[in-house]
Amino acid sequence: MANNLEQKEAIVTEALPNAMFRVVLDGGEEESIAYLSGKMRKFRIRVLVGDRVLVEIDPYGGKGRISRRL
Fold first, then answer.
1. Are the CB atoms for 14 and 49 separated by under 8 Å?
2. Which one, of 11, 20, 4, 3, lies nearest residue 70 by Cα?
């Protein structure tokens, strides 16, 4: 399955309710809200404040999806 979303590395700065996180994207001061992908929820992969993660950016400016913990 092809994935057309842009992927960027980010750092988690705050944990929010419902597996949502505030992240700061690399290469700028851009701050965004991101949620955990389904596989990360299924396998209960923990994401903590300060972790480096791979975020798939929504091209329309919505929430990003955390697809991998680095």
1. yes
2. 11
Q: Under DSSP, is residue 39 helix (H, G, I), strand (E, B) or coil? A: helix
Q: Which residue has the tokens 């975020």?
A: 55
Q: What's the predicted TM-score (pTM) here?
A: 0.89
Give 14-58 pLDDT, tens digit per residue.
999 999 999 999 977 789 999 999 999 999 999 999 999 999 998
Quote the CA–CA distance of 31 and 55 in Å, as a whole number: 12
Q: How is domain 6-69 classified at the architecture level of CATH? A: Beta Barrel (2.40)
Sheet strands (E) in 1-70: 6-16, 20-25, 31-36, 52-57, 64-69
